[in-house]
Amino acid sequence: MSFPRLLHLFGSRGVPSFLFGFMAVNSAIRIGSADGASQVVYFLLSASLWAMFVVLVNIRPAPIRRGRSIVGVLAALVAQFAFIGVGVLSQETTAGTRILISDGLLIAGMLVAVASVAFLGRCFGVLPDVRGLVTRGPYRLVRHPLYLGELAASLGLVIGAREALPAAGLYPLATIALIIAPSVARAGRVICVTTRSTAPGGNGRTVGRPAGG
Question: Which tens digits make up the pLDDT trace of 101-117?
């Protein structure tokens, strides 16, 4: 195997696998120190989501068309690291009504995210590359359900944080980045998984996920 090929595999699979694997292990370890059943469920779902990322990033096919936009690539990366930053800054939690709202958003958001990744399958991607059009499950209802789940869970983290201001500062950054990233990969899509609603002129809502959503 040539050196450029090895370098490509390292960047496209090795680095993401390490980062996703680290987050999966970190979430799994935190199950043991969770404060209550809701946190156990959240960390379990979080560990499952990151583990799914590890598997999918290694079994996905090469993209049909790679995203060439520097803005799109940067937006996708900024969004991912912003989400991680929100999690890091929200480890100390508060109590009372805020924590109840936080738990509800966390669990609901993670359930949506895990379900979205399950239906996304081998079309999963972090960068705005075109791997296909997914129209099953939650993708029949929402353009980017994984983004929706991530945003809901992150909002739950912000609301439940003892010091919410630092995490809240990153939340708009992640939101804006998620709005920008998909827009650069909308052209040139092809159908990866078909349903009765995927024909041209369909319901107009079934749009694939090019970069994390």
Answer: 988 999 999 999 999 99
Instruction: Determine the distance from the C-alpha atom of residue 176 to the mean position of all C-alpha atoms in its chain, rounded to a whole number.
Output: 14
- 22 belongs to a structural domain: no
Q: Measured between alpha carbons, how far is 185 from 199 in angstroms, rounded to an integer?
A: 19
Rounded average pLDDT per 10-residue block, the chain, 213 residues: 71 83 90 84 89 87 71 78 83 79 91 92 75 84 88 89 82 81 48 34 33 44
Question: How many domains, in total, are found in the chain?
Answer: 1
Range of the domain at 83: 64-183
Is 191 domain-assigned? no
Q: What pLDDT digit, counting tens, does each position of 56-80 carry?
A: 888 877 777 776 667 777 887 788 7
Residue 17 inside a domain? The answer is: no
> Is residue 105 in some structural domain?
yes
Cα dist. 173→69, 76, 82, 167, 185 in Å? Answer: 19, 11, 7, 10, 20
Dump the DSSP string for 74-131: HHHHHHHHHHHHHHHHT-SB--THHHHHHHHHHHHHHHHHHHHHHHHGGG--SSS-B-
Joined tokens for residue 110: 């993670």
**Cα separation of 139 and 16, whole Å?**
24
